[in-house]
Amino acid sequence: MYKNLISGSRTDFVTAFVGNKLANDKDLQLLAANKHIASIDLSECRRITDQGFHQLDLGSLESLDIQECRELSIKTVVRSLHQKCPKLKSLALGNSRGRNRLEDDSLKLIANELPGLQEIHLRGCELVAKPGYDALQQFNELQVLKLEYCRHFTDQCLESLARTSLKHDRLRSLLITNTREFTGRGLEHLNVSSLTELDLSFCWGLVDDALRPLQNATRLRTLRLEYSCADITDVGLAHLMNLGSSLTSFGFGGQDSASITDDFLSQLSSWTTLESLEIYGCPRITDNGMRTLLERLKMLQHLKIYSCPLLTGDFITPSMKTTMRSIEIRRCSLLKCGVIQSLSTMQRLKHLSIHGCPNITIERIKSIQPQLLEEFSQRLISVDLDTDLSDDTLVARDSEDEYI
């Protein structure tokens, strides 16, 4: 089953990817014989134990992902990496639930044993508080810091990091998600000029003032604010307008982000470099606002819209016919079945998903244009049409094409 675990044309630099929940210690024996592995991804391998991990030769390892490996002891793994991995630069670990959760002592141990890390991705930080986050101050070469489900991460935590491990111009990517205690005001202490990616999704306490420092993040290419905009208004989002010359991917909105209106979409239309746009839970945006926006975004390839109840589908523009590669629409109750006909004219469209839109069902599409579903299944890589998240789903042929 795992003969193709190792990929790479050179014998001195290879990557191993398992990513299978059923993989166990025995399967790792295929990797144990290779002494030139630079990167290993064992995420979701929940049957791998400390004993199996210990048999790997890690002398050449530079990157390791063991997220959701719930049988691995964090203490044992980190100490093993300290002893065996002098070249390690990137580490992703942590479990969203179950055993071996990250705690304050876990972060202190990582900082003490692996101070040379440049990229850190920690998942499942609900049990970590300020003493644990303060341990991250020991890293002096951080370029990527990702903290998922960091319930107790605060503005004070970020301020402390900004004055120590993040004070240099090295930070490229910052992710802080799933916290109510972080308002974003700590960003004013951070040097954002080097950032190319910022993800503050599910930071429910985010406020308008938090976005003001991002005016200086002129290298930013990806910005994610999904489900972080309950208290964000057009005024706060206006602070982001300077990013239009660099940003290629943007996600915003949240649960009933009623303060976001067509006025913001009008401002957003100046971001002509956008290739990916995701909009969540904005009950006040309309077809007119969306159409005005999409007419200007000539480079847009990927569009995702969730829970925007005023949208009917009349926002589809002629320019989308030659650029769009993927479209996902969910829980837009007024979306009309006629939108399917408009989508069928898009020449580059490869991925289509529509869920929870009661006016769109496979039966209704068949009654309007019987051959349309067959055309979709032949031309598109994936089609997923489901009015109520049940089994009423059509999936087209498989493909090796990349879905960006």
Provide a brief overview of the structure.
21% of the residues lie in helices and 19% in strands. It has 404 residues and is of the alpha/beta class.
Taking pLDDT < 50 over at least 5 consecutive residues as the criterion, the unreliable ranges are 1-13, 389-404
Spatial arrangement of strands, main beta sheet: 1-2-3-4-5-6-7-8-9-10-11-12-13-14-15-16
Secondary-structure element string: EEHEHEHEHEHEHEEEHEHEHEEHEHHE
Largest sheet geometry: 16 strands, mixed
Number of strands: 16
Q: Tell me the structural class.
A: alpha/beta
Radius of gyration: 23 Å
What's the rounded overall pLDDT mean?
85
Distance between the termini: 27 Å
Count of helical stretches? 12
Helix content: 10-25%
Strand content: 15-25%
Global outline: globular
Descriptive account of the structure:
- The chain is an alpha/beta fold and about 400 residues long.
- About 20% of the residues lie in helices and about 20% in strands.
- The protein contains 12 helices and 16 strands.
- The chain has a 16-stranded mixed β-sheet, with no helix packed on it.
- Helix 7 links the parallel strand 10 (about 220-225) and strand 11 (about 250-255).
- Helix 3 packs parallel to helix 4 and helix 8 runs parallel beside helix 9.
- The protein starts with 5 loop residues before the first strand and ends in an 18-residue tail after the last strand.
